[in-house]
Amino acid sequence: MWTWFHKLxxxxxxxDISGRWLPWLVACMAVCLVVGVIWSLLFVPxxxxxxxxxxxxxVHVPVASISLAFFPLMAIAGTVSLVWKMKLADVVVKVAxxxxxxxxALALASGSIWGIDTWGTFWVWDARLTxxxxxxxxxxxxxSLRSALEDTDAAAKAxxxxxxxxxxxxxxxKYSVLWWDVxxxxxxxxxxxxxxxxxxxxxxxxxxxxxxVYLFFVISLILxxxxxxxxxxxxxxxxxxxxxx
Amino acid sequence: xxxxxxxxxxxxxxxxxxNVWSVYAMFAVFLAFNLLWPLRKKKxxxxxxxxxxxxxxxxxxxxxxxxxxxxxxxxxxDAASPAGDKS
Lengths: 245, 87
Hints:
Order of helices and strands of chain A: HHHHHHHHH
Distance between the termini of chain B: 106 Å
Helix content of chain B: over 70%
Radius of gyration of chain B: 35 Å
Oligomer: heterodimer
Helix content of chain A: over 70%
Low-confidence stretches of chain B: 76-81, 83-87
Mean pLDDT of chain B: 79
Order of helices and strands of chain B: HHHH
Largest sheet of chain A: none
């Protein structure tokens, strides 16, 4: 188990293995996203109240819920980098922040546009929306903190700590719709039977979009991790050989 | 089952065209940017590493003929020994 752990910490090993996975991941992502987008735009029946704005659901929900994965991810990677000084873990903490900011921004923007007609307003300062906005600012803070600290080790420590502390906010975002009386709806209960509301014809395309967006998240993260590895290891023999090809 | 009778209906999105299409357009930009940007950055990085390699190699070649010139410096190392102590 420990050899595996050490291998995972080796940037070169990760670079090699991720290079082999990428084509397969990209193929799966492309299939899921194409099927998911076509299905959600063309085939999903319209909502009895919202009409065709329910199409926004298929972008907003996967993006927003995956945006909540960033702080736990960075907190775990940050802990690993603090405790074991694993190089690769800090690389993950670093590159996850900008991608997380993108996810959070799209979740906020798509939610606002959805709200214009369904809620009659694009913004309210309720707990869900405010805590998600806070997550966006925390991620921007994380990026600035990293660029403000020139010493890589100091930046790694500071960002690891901030990501661990910031995870509290993620818990608030997740349960805000249950703890407080908010405008945002609580989680939807999906049913297996099509005659019930929210049956398979509603959630199957959602599952496909979820898979597609998750794969996109993994692929984009891997691409950035690989770049950061190349940047940090640019004086290593294997990187020189790679560049010389 | 397709929910639209014709292409115009599909574009109109039941009166929510602006909302639905702007969200899907942002989604497309979001996907494209976060996949293409790292690829572009990788190309830049590789070019930079390659350029530095060439610069290093040239510096190495130029440094080689100078080594004999550096040799006379060696006797100076003796001067560093505490000669003054003898007197």
